[in-house]
Fold PepSY domain-containing protein.
Amino acid sequence: MMGAIVLTHRWLGIAFCLLFAMWFASGIVMHFVPFPSLTEAERFAGLVPVDRDGTRISVADAVAASGIADATRVRLIQRSDGPVYVVSGSAGSRAVRASDGGDASVTSADVALTIVQAYSRQRGLDAPRAAIVAQSDYDQWSVPNGFDRHRPLSRAALGDAPGTEVYVSSLTGEVVLDTTRSERAWNWAGSVLHWIYPTILRSSWALWDGVVWTLSLLAMIAALLGAVLGIVRVKMRGRQLSSPYRGWHALHHIIGLVATVFVLTWIFSGWLSMDHGRLFSRGQLTPAEAGVVNAAPDWRDASSLDPQPISPLAREVEWFAFNGHVYRRDRVGLGRQALIRAGDAPRDGPAPYLDRQEIGDLTARLGAGCAAPFLLAGNDDYPAQSALPGAPVYRTTCGDLWFDVDAADGKVLQRLDPSRRVYRWLYSALHTLDFPILLAHARLRDALIVGLCTLGLMFSITGIVIGWRRLRAWLAA
């Protein structure tokens, strides 16, 4: 039995020692330089006030023109070529012109470039030689599934000192991603390596998922067998523990014993990052719950909001369905909005957010025995945060089932059943050390992550040396 463990660990270690080293080193980079994305602050900063005079069709007409039968959200934004409605449903999004309801998708490189130039001016980005350099479904930085509803994407290089590149959705004409030369360079050494994320593999989600899940599982088995061997081979010399090995083997043994708990929990939690519903729930609404939350409203109800004019400062106007009602929110700043509900008598001015009662009325329909919603604290063990800075998030507990709802736009941010709550600790807490006490002390968390990953890297390097010597001897035999 022990001989089988030794042989299995030996050859799995030879096969995966470089992968272990890559994961630990790239994990340090990822902690400080995340995968490129367009933050909500960046997206909103690129918007300009909506031209209300150019908006000639109603929300209901825009939904009808889009052809999206189950539309649940409609946004009005100002593009460089005029105001457009972006209509969204379960199948995707589509843009229609607010002037006449015509198709507002972006098929021309000239239109995409004009949108990029307007966005850059609004953001204060230097774009001396902006040009569309590619139009494609996938490249290294646009492979995540979240961009599926925007493909193909037009990629523009601004020609500025930071090497900024901006991506425009062909379906909505919105800027959906930007990257800089520094981000791209660091991510080659970070996320691309860590997630095994080359475009050719990641563009097929199912293939990438299967490959990385399998590799992570085999790596975890190798680490577990190594831990068993490391503990079994410890020798007692008097009152001291010692290793029977010498040289690199001894170093591998000793560092492995010191790092055993971290290596095992980190590799295990990394494997769980690829779970995707295999062992734990995915935290998604069930079809029945989604039917309640995403029920398409009668968009003609939105006309009752017309007497309350859109703020002239609004950079984005959104109509959304929540608990059978249509709401409109005028976003006048990143953290400032006005929210009104169709059919309501005029209140003492628009409210900024959905209130506790409105959220409770919806969540009471999602589960049995639901308690009244309560405001989620910033240091909660199961954190959820609105995209709108400072906006409240309310949690409703329905027995063992929890729902977190964003009071800014009515979205369900989390569905936490017991399985998902366990997953939060086994994956997030173990892999990124986002324990509440460490989140409150960011520098201590940084030091722990860097220190532990460095220890894991040193351990991996000893394995590389031993593996190379073993492989060389085997090949020479």
Summary: The chain has a mean pLDDT of 94. The CA atoms of residues 6 and 229 lie 7 Å apart. The first strand starts at residue 73 and ends at 79.
